[in-house]
Design brief:
heterodimer; A: rod-shaped; B: two-stranded antiparallel ribbon; 18 helices
Chain lengths: 82, 565
């Protein structure tokens, strides 16, 4: 659980940084002027999806390293036996 | 390793065609760099825009040749049987030559203003950037992709027996064909056409070629290092998943400033920021696979180019791609020399180097050369790597000057103002271009004549170095994961400096007062730092790998067990 919370926190922080860099160049709400709500839905959906992608990345990278550790251990055992 | 299936030999012709087209493409690149410094060179004979289109199109075609060659070589190994319908592959080869020749001549029609329209379609050449080929070539390409997809999918076992590598390659060849369709029709509304153009250009590169790249890198590592297929399968699965999770929406960074709705700016930026994630994943994947069992490097040039492919992907597509895809940075960088700096590293590095790596892996096996002189291959690698990093440096710093002079000061785009300001970098380009071209010639000569020259001289080891090398420095000690992480971090630190440099053009001090100190300073630290760190990291990684080769006695090269696949 702690791991998940850490991963989620890291994902959120990374996506906050990405969002700050990604604010539209024109910085106003001119395209859908009739509804700021539509804009907020758009921003929030994008942010949540981005957090998900980052979270998936951290999880899969951790397992990649886990495979490496397991393989290294297996190779060491094999070397000792031979 | 010996050839297990005779149809694997069909890949040889594609690798040879790849090398010929590669050298011609580099020739066009040199011409372009000379025309940048003196626009009158060959004016009216081979205009800049035509030479550029030839350079781009040949670049795509030779990389495709490399991909096809690599897929044909590994396809039977993955399927554990001969390739079906070899006659179709032979037909594909001749069709490819027809496409190349057709494309070569019809692109030149642009110079005299002929597009060859008939029934509302541009049949000879259509002039859309990156998709200059006319409709006839487009249809032929589609047929070629259909042949490739048919042969690969029919050769593979039933879907229930597929592992992740089969899936990666199967999806790759199918999507290669499907995505091409978007470029096959003409839309009169230019902003709408731009969507479809970018569907092809971007989804091809980041949605399809990346998938094939990840899969082929993984399988080549299985063949070279006897890496566990399950671990590679995991890396391929998540690599492909992350490519699609980020790249499919990340494509929207191409929709800025071309008449498409401005709401793309947020999603286009934020998902583009995530696009380096699969590339970081690929970086660790190759590090772990190459270091897990300490196996000696038997075919050094093949591994050199695989590593080059993954590292240039990291800095060209990942870091430089990251730095310029935010709306706030892209507004300055798009359409300037900053773009080809990223594009050259990403396209040649990621995909070109992989094709060359596959050729270095497959050609000695097909020619039954068990102990070939690897020195030329290594020399060629270092020349093309240094040349390409140098060209990227010239493009990027020249592009920074261009942004300031053209976008901030508003001086004349086509006139002499910009040209004079960028003068040094316009001269650096052919300089590094020559280094790259020599490397390309060395690689082509080495691969074409491999097995037809003398074997390794007496007293040398298989890698062409003295048999008992005792390095004086600790540069060749094993590369730990922690150290690899530090190198990666350094690359990203310089990438951040580059990003801040592009962002600084938004500051009133630069934009209004016209003070270029900050962007110039940040670019002056960021770009050379990134290129240097990359060069040193590749050197360090390979020194660590080479030390294994001299430490272990390797009686036979290329001992690889395809049965593991």
């Amino acid at each position: 659980m702690t791991q998940r919370i850490t991963d989620l926190t890291l994902s959120v922080l990374a996506c906050v940084a990405a969002t700050l860099l990604s604010w539209p160049f024109w910085r106003n709400f001119e395209y859908w002027p009739e509804s700021h709500l539509a804009w907020w839905i758009y921003f929030i959906t994008g942010f949540v999806l981005a957090v998900y992608v980052f979270y998936v990345f951290i999880g899969s990278l951790r397992i990649l390293f886990l495979h490496d550790t397991q393989e290294q251990a297996a190779t060491t055992v094999k070397d000792k036996l031979s | 390793m010996q050839i297990e299936f005779q149809t694997q030999r069909l890949s040889m012709r594609f690798f040879m065609l790849m090398l010929v087209l590669f050298v011609i493409q580099v020739g066009y690149g040199l011409l372009l760099s000379v025309q940048q410094t003196d626009p009158t060179v060959l004016a009216g004979v081979m205009n800049f825009n035509v030479a550029r289109a030839e350079h781009l199109n040949l670049g795509i075609l030779w990389i495709l040749c490399g991909f096809i060659g690599a897929i044909l070589f590994v396809g039977p190994l993955l399927a554990k049987r001969e390739m079906v319908a070899p006659w179709l592959i032979k037909l594909l080869f001749y069709a490819l030559i027809v496409i190349v020749v057709w494309n070569f001549f019809t692109l030149r029609l642009a110079q005299v203003g002929i597009a060859g329209w008939w029934h509302g379609q541009p049949w000879l050449q259509q002039g859309l950037e990156y998709l200059e080929a006319g409709r006839i070539a487009g249809i032929l390409v589609l047929v070629g992709f259909a042949i490739l997809a048919y042969v690969v999918l029919r050769t593979f076992p039933p879907v229930r027996q597929w592992n992740e590598i089969h899936w990666g390659l199967g999806l790759g060849v199918s999507a290669l064909m499907a995505v091409w369709v978007f470029g096959l029709f003409y839309v009169a509304r230019l902003d709408l056409q731009e969507y479809f153009r970018w569907f092809v250009v971007h989804y091809w590169v980041e949605g399809v070629w990346e998938v094939i790249h990840i899969t082929l890198v993984g399988f080549l590592l299985v063949l070279m290092f006897k890496v566990d297929v399950k671990s590679v399968g995991f890396a391929v699965f998540w690599g492909v998943a992350l490519v699609w999770l980020s790249g499919l929406i990340g494509n929207a960074h191409h929709y800025f400033w071309i008449g498409t709705p401005a709401f793309w700016q947020f999603w286009g930026s934020v998902f583009s920021a995530l696009e380096p994630l699969p590339l970081v994943f690929c970086f660790w994947h190759i590090y772990l696979d190459a270091h897990v069992n300490k196996r000696p490097l038997e075919n050094a040039p093949a591994f050199y180019f695989i590593l080059g492919s993954v590292v240039l992907e990291q800095i060209g597509a990942g870091i430089l791609g990251f730095s310029m895809t935010f709306a706030l940075t892209n507004v300055w960088s798009h359409g300037t020399w900053v773009t080809p700096g990223h594009g050259h590293l990403a396209l040649f590095g990621t995909f070109g180097m992989l094709g060359i790596a596959a050729a270095y892996f497959a050609v000695p096996i097909m020619r039954k050369v068990t102990n070939y002189d690897q020195r030329l291959g290594k020399l060629g690698f270092w020349l093309v790597l240094t040349g390409m990093l140098g060209m990227a440096f010239a493009f990027n710093v020249g592009g920074t000057v261009q942004i300031y002079v053209y976008r901030i000061l508003g001086l004349d785009w086509f006139g002499g103002d910009v040209a004079r300001a960028m003068g040094v970098f316009k001269l650096l380009l052919p300089l590094f271009g020559v280094v790259f071209a020599i490397g390309a010639l060395v690689v082509a000569y080495d691969l074409i004549t491999l097995g037809r020259r003398l074997a390794v001289p007496a007293g040398m080891d298989a890698h062409g170095g003295p048999a008992d090398v005792h390095p004086a420095t600790r540069w060749s000690r094993p590369l730990s994961g922690f150290e690899a992480g530090i190198w990666l971090l350094m690359m990203w630190v310089f990438g951040t400096i580059i990003t801040l440099g592009l962002l600084s053009f938004n500051l009133p001090r630069v934009r209004v007062a016209g003070d270029p100190t900050l962007p110039y300073l940040l670019a002056g630290i960021g770009y050379p730092g990134l290129m240097l760190v990359t060069l040193l990291f590749v050197w360090r990684f390979l020194a660590s790998m080479e030390a294994r080769a001299s430490a272990a006695s390797t009686p036979s090269l290329l001992r690889v067990l395809p049965a593991q696949a």
